[in-house]
């Protein structure tokens, strides 16, 4: 896949002297869903604002579809649809009027067939004549996406698309995003919800204190950094672990009914075989066992804590 966005050596120092971005390098591949994760204040919105040409970088370059956002702003910007964090639309306009108007802002000729397709894709067609004020929060969010897609951009930025949205609506939004990807749009979303990145993204980037600390395929990331947990459900409860097991990092849980062992899937030896042997020697028997992969959330918390 070729790059549709290329960010090189980007830094941003605000007037206050605060360094919000420090030498960021990032390529977004055409057609992917890229999730940018980071704690509050990490620099996500600053980065998006610079890529979209809303804020100026202090140093560095951004190319969008091969065009510089700094020197070819109009060309580069027309490739981008942006759904900002805060929802602001004209409450008394109809859905149709507000979405059509957005297209006009990009100097594009009217194209009712395109607006109709966008509204249908976003399940807003039956609301096209409703005033924005009469819509639910989830529908208003979809109107914001429709506005961002009105000028047929190739790239869609979604800044916290599901913040404060209930679980069902969030899942609906994920469906919408998948449909958009299938129609050929490249999607970059920022989120606090690790689950969202885990569910949606092809690749994940983590930003912390203005620095990109990781960019990785989601699947590789889960595998590479993942730890596994072995849980043994004991035949009988035990009060404490015998000394012969003291060199293992074991946790006795559920009042002595389960034994938990965390191991590194990357390690040469997991220690499981010897642990099971030593348990047998110690006379500790179990009925059942299971293993679980640690989640992206564990990985993320680790990264942000240590970087
Ligand atoms: N106009 C500004 N002047 C000075 N500092 C700013 C300005 N805008 C943002 N910052 C600072 O830059 C840092 C990054 O802010 P940014 O909004 O990019 O973070 P974010 O990752 O989007 O956070 P959140 O998840 O809370 O939206 C923060 O410490 C913020 O206080």
Task: Offer a concise description of the structure.
Keywords: ATP-binding, Nucleotide-binding, Transport. The protein is of the alpha/beta class and 307 residues long.
Layout of strands and helices, then pairs:
Elements: E1 3-13, E2 19-29, E3 33-37, H1 44-51, E4 59-64, E5 67-68, H2 73-77, E6 80-83, H3 95-105, H4 112-121, H5 137-149, E7 155-159, H6 167-182, E8 186-191, H7 194-200, E9 203-208, E10 211-217, H8 218-225, E11 227-234, E12 250-253, E13 258-264, H9 272-281, E14 286-293, H10 296-306
Parallel strand pairs: 3-8, 3-9, 6-7, 7-8
Antiparallel strand pairs: 1-2, 1-4, 4-5, 9-10, 11-13, 11-14, 12-13
Helix pairs in contact: 3-5
The structure holds adenosine-5'-triphosphate.
Keywords: ATP-binding, Nucleotide-binding, Transport
Pfam family, one: ABC_tran
InterPro entries: AAA+_ATPase, ABC_transporter-like_ATP-bd, ABC_transporter-like_CS, ABC_transporter_ATP-binding, P-loop_NTPase
List keywords for this structure.
307 residues, alpha/beta, Rossmann fold, Alpha-Beta Plaits, 2 domains, six-stranded mixed beta sheet, four-stranded antiparallel beta sheet, 32% helix, elongated, binds adenosine-5'-triphosphate
Could you please describe the fold and organization of this structure?
Strands 6-7-8-3-9-10 form a six-stranded mixed β-sheet, with helices on both faces. Strands 2-1-4-5 form a four-stranded antiparallel β-sheet. A hairpin with a 5-residue loop joins strand 1 and strand 2. The longest helix has 16 residues, at 167-182. It folds into two domains: 3-223, 3-Layer(aba) Sandwich (Rossmann fold), CATH 3.40.50; 226-306, Alpha-Beta Plaits, CATH 3.30.70. 32% of the residues lie in helices and 29% in strands. The chain has helices spanning 44-51, 73-77, 95-105, 112-121, 137-149, 167-182, 194-200, 218-225, 272-281, 296-306; strands spanning 3-13, 19-29, 33-37, 59-64, 67-68, 80-83, 155-159, 186-191, 203-208, 211-217, 227-234, 250-253, 258-264, 286-293. The protein is of the alpha/beta class and 307 residues long. The chain binds adenosine-5'-triphosphate. Residues 14, 16, 18, 20, 38, 40-46 line the site of adenosine-5'-triphosphate (ATP). GO terms for molecular function: ATP binding. This is ABC transporter ATP-binding protein. It holds the Pfam family ABC_tran.
